[in-house]
Every structure is written in C-alpha cells, then in structure tokens.
Amino acid sequence: MKTKTNKKHKSSVFSTLFGTPEVLRELYYAIEGVDIPVDAIIDINTLSDVLYMQQINDLSFTIDDKIVVLIEHQSTINNNIPVRLLMYIARVYESILDREKLYKKTQLKIPTPEFIVLYNGDEPYPDHRELRLSSAFENIKELKHLTNNEFPLELIVQVYNINHGQNPEIFSKSKTLTNYSILIAKIKEYRKNFPLDKAIKAAVKYCIENDILKQFLKKHSAEVINMLTDDITIEELADIRFNEGRDIGHEEGHEEGREEGLKEGRKEGREEGRDIGHEEVIELFDQGFSIEEIKQRLRLNKNRSNAGGN
Questions:
Q1: Residue 72: beta bridge partners?
Q2: For residue 177, how far is the Cα from the chain centroid?
Q3: Is residue 216 part of a domain?
Q4: Partners of 113 in the beta sheet?
Q5: Do residues 170 and 160 touch, judged by C-beta distance below 8 A?
Q6: pLDDT (tens digit, 9 = 90+) per residue, 35-66?
Q7: What SS3 state is found at 42?
Q8: End-to-end CA distance of the chain, in Å?
Q9: SS3 call for 210
Q10: 11 Cα distance to chain centroid
C-alpha cells in the first residue's frame, strides 16, 4: 500500500503513536464509524516544522485523495482551534495540490476536508462538541445582511473528549486510543504524589507491566518520556497564557505567563548554547507566540548560526 510520511514533523507521543496508516485506519473508524477500504491509499502529509515554524499540525492525511483529515490533540481547551485549522488546511492543500491546474479552466477536484480535535485535559468537557469558525467572526449586522445567516466561509470542527471513561463507543472501537488514554490518566494520577518526571516514568512502567502500549513504549521509552515531559510543560504554560485571569486576575495571570515563558525561553537558550535576553523572549511572548513556537525559533536561529560558522 502506498504511503507518504513527512519525516521532518516534530514528534510528539500522539503523532508518533497514531502516525501510521494502520493505526489511523483504526482511529478513523472509531471516530467516524467508517471502515477505510483495504485498497484505499493513505498519504500522511503532516506539516513540517522546518517549513512552517509558526503553524504545525499534529496529524493530517488523505484517503484516496478524496478526503483530507486533520486531527489535533489538545490538553487545554482552545476555542481558537477553528482559526488555526483554517491556516493548517490551506497549507496542506498548498502542499498536495498541483498549482498549475489551479489556472486551467477545468475545475480542479480537491479532497473534502474533515477536522477533528481529541481533548484529554483536566477541565470538564462534554463527550462531543462542535466548534465553528464563524463564531470568531466580528458582528457585521449593521454593515451587511446575511442571507439565512450563511457566511461566505465556514469551517466545522468536531471535538471529542478522550479522557479515560469518556466516549465509551469510540474507545470500544480503538484499542490504541483506549491504551493511550490510560497512559495519560496514569500520569495524572501519579502527578498527585510525584514530580512530573517521576510521574511519567511511573506511568510508562505501569503500562509496560500491564501490557498497555507495551511494544510501543519499550521501543520508544526514552523518547516517550522526553516528549511527554516537553508536551505537558508546554501545555501548562499555554494554559497560563490562554486562561490568564481565570483564578488570579487578568494582569497577574499575564505577568505569571510572561515569567514562565521567560524561564522556559532562557532554559531553551542555555540548552541551545546562546544567551537569550529578557526583551527577546518577552517580545515574542507578547506577540502571541506559544512557548513551543519560541523554542522552535531558537532552534532555527542556532541551526542558521551553525551553518554560517561552518
């Protein structure tokens, strides 16, 4: 079976675990209830962090060039995801379509998009929720009349709660998703009594001993621990930024987010061998860049510096 995989994509446990055609078939069936035909061609086209420093999706793939599926994994509730997915799908289309055909008279058929978000954060969330791009649009009733309240552009995202115990019907169809949710649930459980790194190691150990993602975790054990630590830290910092003011007031929340971002940026700078100034990190943070995006910029700058010095 033909498969194309983007090897440059920044790995996470989620994208690594689900980033194969076999597991994607299982996951798609669990969510959509549709079996992908055995002879269908699955092309994985997840965006590269090298080309798209500020816009990186978790998973995207086409099914027989007829459907393009974008799947995002979130552990914080982010209502801006329809806007982000709009940017992602434009870049995915840009990468998979023949540009020359866009300028010919014959209509170019493009894969129908599907947008899925899998949520496993701590905040209460329903089993399923639908998010729409149009909810982000400015109110234009005074300037323009909309026929049947239809917008010229719409994007609909299906959000599913994949915390352990939620959406039993979906989990009954995917052993991989069930086991992944158990791994994350165990990390949350152990974090009540242990620091993050020890909680992750304990959860990985528990899963291996109980035949939960056993082969995957044994093969990628060190990588998984590093990726989980990085992912969870980034999500926690993002939670401070996007939920600023929820418990401590807007300005205090913002300052706390800035300080956490500064610490993380300085840490990354030390690891990359360059001195990161206070103003540089704060400026990026205040411009809306996530901690992950700031870290990626630092890595890119280091690579450029190294290339220039050779």
A1: 117
A2: 16
A3: no
A4: 68
A5: yes
A6: 999 899 999 998 875 444 444 788 999 999 99
A7: strand
A8: 41
A9: coil
A10: 10
Overall residue count recorded for the chain in this entry = 310
For residue 51, tell me if it sits in a domain: yes
SS3 at position 133: helix
pLDDT digits (tens, 9 = 90+) for 128-142: 999 999 999 998 777
- In the 3-class helix/strand/coil scheme, how is 60-129 assigned residue by residue? EEEECCCEEEEEEEECCCCCCHHHHHHHHHHHHHHHHCCHHHHHCCCCCCCCEEEEEEEECCCCCCCCEE
18-32, 76-90, 228-242, 255-269: lowest mean pLDDT where?
255-269
Structure-token match 């983007």, residue found: 6
**Cβ proximity of 70 and 114 under 8 Å:** yes
3-state helix, strand, coil split of the chain in percent (to 5) is 50, 10, 35
Alpha-carbon torsion (118, 122, 126, 129), positive or negative: negative
Establish if 209 belongs to a structural domain: no
Per-residue model confidence (pLDDT) at position 118: 95
Here the tokens at position 19 are 């980033």
Domain that holds residue 88: 13-199
Q: What is the pLDDT of residues 86-99, one digit of tens each?
A: 999 999 999 999 98
Q: Is there a contact between 70 and 59 (Cβ–Cβ < 8 Å)?
A: yes
Residue with tokens 């700078």: 269
Domain count, the chain: 1
As a whole number, mean pLDDT of residues 283-309 equals 62
Closest CA to 283 of 268, 273, 293, 274: 293
Q: Per the domain annotation, does 47 fall within a domain?
A: yes
If one counts every other C-beta atom within 10 angstroms of the C-beta of residue 40, the result is: 17
Beta-bridge partners for 117: 72, 159
Torsion angle of C-alpha atoms 295, 297, 298, 303, degrees rounded to 10 = 130
